[in-house]
Amino acid sequence: MSLVMNEDHCRYLQKRYDVFKTQKLFENMEFSTDRNKISDWAPLIMRGRDENQPVAANYSAEGTDVDFGRLTRQMVKYLQGKGVKTEFNRHVEDIKRESDGAWVLKTADTRNPDWQLTLRTRFLFLGAGGGALTLLQKSGIPEGKGYGGLPVSGLFFRNSNPETAEQHNAKVYGQASVGAPPMSVPHLDTRNVDGKRHLMFGPYAGFRSNFLKQGSFMDLPLSIHMDNLYPMLRAGWANMPLTKYLLGELRKTKEERFASLLEYYPRQTPTTGNSSPQGNASKSLKRLRKRRRAAVWYGDCRPRRRLARRIAGSVAGRIDRCAADDPADAPMLPRARPVLGRSSERAGTGLRHQVERKP
């Protein structure tokens, strides 16, 4: 759901709706400037709002809420049932590449420093989020030179009062302020985590020097080398609006952050919500050159979901091409994603519904 709150933004949202409505993927999207209709979609955002304030909203009932923690545990359990071995509480001490192109990883048990295990593999996939930068640097590959990481955390107000959370069943996105980066778009969300419902508003930018929530405060200092110092400084200078936005966010008091929340939830009171960090994300990325495609790294980035699909698709495609020794093996991507390489318009509504229904 999209919500805007001034005349210029209302006109913009109307035009955007008119364009998107012609696309099959958005044919069920609704638009309204009627306050009662918007209140039906998301009651909390309209209660207590100034009657003279222009408002408009787009709404789609086809949205989803994903508990990524639970989803990850389910996927790991599924893979274990297929024979995949998983190791937990392991720390990668070193990564080296042998003359035949294979990778050798030396790992240690975080609970028992005396226990060590050496692994050898043809393909190496670094999917450690913010922690991938440290592993990439340990690999020593030329493509890893020049990468740096800026650990920016996301802060949200959270309301866990069941009576309040049950009154909101939507993800309501606003519009970024003039000059603000797209990542700053505020949203008021329903979140279901481990069976409990929460109401969350954010994000507000925070900063910690650890790349992961449970990482070390020395992660950032130890990651800075001569080859990535200039790219990191250059990134800040070349993206001055983003730099100013982040600095401004860091200077905000809790009261100033709460004032932003009131624009989306006018009747929220300071005593019914609290601010909580929801994770770190290393924001700097540099494109890999195409060389020997035996190692792929996947750092944390925004917008994460869109890039995650693109990166995962690229990785799977390379494995399809590199590892399929038997020509009779059908590539996995077309089977997993029937719409791969087909536009939503040419695919038609039938294929779209088929994909949506696929378990």
TrEMBL record:
Its cofactor is FAD. Pathway: Carbohydrate metabolism; tricarboxylic acid cycle; oxaloacetate from (S)-malate (quinone route): step 1/1. Its EC number is 1.1.5.4. Residues 265-288, 323-359 are annotated as: Disordered. The keyword Flavoprotein applies. The keyword Repeat does not apply. It comes from the Bacteria. GO terms for molecular function: L-malate dehydrogenase (quinone) activity. Keywords: FAD, Flavoprotein, Oxidoreductase, Tricarboxylic acid cycle. It is an enzyme of class 1 (oxidoreductase). GO terms for biological process: tricarboxylic acid cycle. It catalyses: (S)-malate + a quinone = a quinol + oxaloacetate. Residues 329-338 have a biased composition (Low complexity). It holds the Pfam family Mqo. Residues 268-280 have a biased composition (Polar residues). NCBIfam families: PRK05257.2-5 (NF003609). This is malate dehydrogenase (quinone).
